[in-house]
Design brief:
- The chain is mainly alpha-helical.
- It has a domain at 42-136: Up-down Bundle (de novo design (two linked rop proteins)), CATH 1.20.1440.230.
- It is 55% helix and 3% strand.
- The chain has helices spanning 22-27, 46-60, 66-69, 71-84, 88-105, 109-113, 115-124, 133-136, and strands at 2-3, 37-38.
- α2 (46-60) runs antiparallel to α4 and α4 packs antiparallel against α5 (88-105).
- The radius of gyration is 14 Å and the shape is globular.
- It binds iron/sulfur cluster.
- The site of iron/sulfur cluster (SF4) has 12 residues, from α3 and α6.
- The site of iron/sulfur cluster has 12 residues, from α3 and α6.
Length: 139
């Protein structure tokens, strides 16, 4: 399930018993956001949902800062390459590096929070990206 809106993190089943409060969520790198909860069934493809987060950011970006304006488009491209590339670990490294730049370099929450759904999908559902668990942790 995704908590906190379209830029909230995906919360795996193993964390569903975590209290829905700011401190408990922050301790796990999650966000309460506006409190919205979207539940997907097990047919959801988490790589496609991660890509959608980058696409959403690209569409909604005001364009003022580079990490959000350009990073969101590069994010879509990198997620596409993870599925097809031979150098999957290098692409995962690029995606994590890009997300770090977006979190710390964006001027507002639009670019700064887009990595939440992207990285939580990658961390918890690597198989949907065509990755073995060890490949998904490349940093
Ligand atoms: S992070 Fe905010 S300020 Fe920067 S381009 Fe995106 S919407 Fe604009």
């Amino acid at each position: 399930m995704q908590v906190g809106g379209p830029l909230g993190a995906y919360v795996p089943e193993s964390q569903w018993d975590v209290p829905l409060d700011y401190e408990a969520y922050a301790a796990l790198g999650l966000v309460v956001g506006h409190g919205g909860i979207v539940v997907h069934d097990d047919t959801a493809n988490m790589a496609k949902l991660a890509r959608y987060a980058m696409e959403f950011c690209a569409l909604e970006s005001c364009g003022k800062c580079t990490p959000c304006r350009i990073g969101s488009t590069r994010g879509m491209e990198t997620i596409d390459r993870i599925a097809s590339a031979k150098d999957k670990e290098q692409q995962v490294h690029l995606l994590r590096d890009l997300c770090d730049t977006m979190v710390h370099g964006s001027l507002c929450a639009m670019g700064g929070m887009t990595p939440y759904p992207v990285l939580s999908a990658l961390n918890h559902y690597p198989a949907d990206f065509g990755l073995q668990p060890a490949e998904a942790t490349a940093s």
